[in-house]
């Protein structure tokens, strides 16, 4: 059978395939062009590209160092890039993606673990899409904008217990908690049957595992200032909600290290279903509470294991540890137990089933920055002076009376009194001459990054604010004086990020900003001002204020960096009565958003 003779093609099959590929590529390019130019996808891809470039820049420490140097010199013309949208709630030292690889023993992985600066992208945290200037105090105690932290998990899980619920554009906070579903007000009134809530005897409180901090929020009406803390855990944003409500709070975990407070700071320690295993590890966690609780102070534990089903042994152990440390059991009311700590070293733990012993006399119980927990009882005799509840002055007299622990510094009483007068004068100048928002409803959450004796915070006593007084870990330990005068604060090293969420503070104050990055007793820097001011920007709310006092040379450098972090800044002379060469920089954080957020 013969073959049919068809006309030969003018092109080979290989040539046809090549032509098809070229045509397909051409039409593909045209489609991509239209997508990039005429749709939001183009902006999104461009932003992703910029972020990829940013991350690659920071992947090279030398390149990052050059960028920091250019920003410090004012030679980086563009603002520092924005971080990606998924970083809106980023906390560098409490990053679950990073910390999940660490040991679970004693919740080590939930504690602070900070990346090195060269491992951190140099970028500015954006607000979430739809962010609004926060609801002002005191309305914020009861409601906040849902769009500022659109995390519904707690409302879904805890709404029936009165924690919070979603209503329209707001989260509403009825004031309840797991152990007080009828409200914190009623719960506090119940505690008032056993402890002196309302007469100024108690002022500083620590609320452990605080949830959304309703207990601390409602204690404020009793003139009790509570520091509320919780880890970044499965509830994710509980401390973020507390801060948005205007309640003092920060992120922390009672794990392997001491909490960042000096010894004998709190008049009241409270746990409402905080689930801290107080008697575990030879009662190490109870001993840490004992270190923090002022002699004569009160410990309140509500919830497990207090008279809790199937936790008889744990409840018996808790009572046994308290007895071994000579705590007086004041009351057991349902699932709430109240103890009073002895006022002195009258209790020396002898033979007991938990093996509790006094710490060595060489131990400083106020060492608490990255300091491992100790399985021993802190000696109250290691701290000189009168600081027990009932011996220290009542609130508000204790705010201005020089406490005994001020004498730990040479001429401490004179220095304290001069510092108090100085800050009263300075704050009056800030309010009258610098046109600041201090004293207005726009300012609720305040931070003093270099607090010394807390004079700045004390001068704000008539304002409806609370102040996080930070004593740098590299400087003399004056934080105990701050607590003795009825204020609150923490130790911190400003070469690391702070343990808080983005957009926590309305006003940040710092005197001697360059000293925060110096090696102690040296002119060399441990870190740089650019990273520090990027961290300040992370903590500051949009339209929030920063006030910096320092030498003219440092203020000029800060002004250059302020431009790079998108702040509007002005430089002012110091108050006429002050000596020295200081100048004052006042800056406002602009309210910017990611380009994609407006599409």
TrEMBL record:
Keyword Aminoacyl-tRNA synthetase tagged: no
Mode of membrane association: Single-pass membrane protein; Single-pass type II membrane protein
Signal peptide: none
SUPFAM superfamilies: S-adenosyl-L-methionine-dependent methyltransferases
A molecular function (GO) term: S-adenosylmethionine-dependent methyltransferase activity
Highest taxon above the source species: Eukaryota
Subcellular location: Endomembrane system; Membrane
InterPro entries per the UniProt record, alphabetical: Put_SAM_MeTrfase, SAM-dependent_MTases_sf
Keyword Transferase: yes
Transmembrane parts of this sequence: 21-41
Main location as per UniProt: membrane
Pfam family, one: Methyltransf_29
GO cellular component, one term: endosome
Enzyme Commission number(s): 2.1.1.-
Record keywords, A-Z: Glycoprotein, Membrane, Methyltransferase, Signal-anchor, Transferase, Transmembrane, Transmembrane helix
GO terms, biological process: methylation
Family to which the UniProt record says this protein belongs: Belongs to the methyltransferase superfamily.
Protein name: Methyltransferase
Organism: Prunus dulcis (Almond)
Lineage, top ranks: Eukaryota, Viridiplantae, Streptophyta, Embryophyta, Tracheophyta
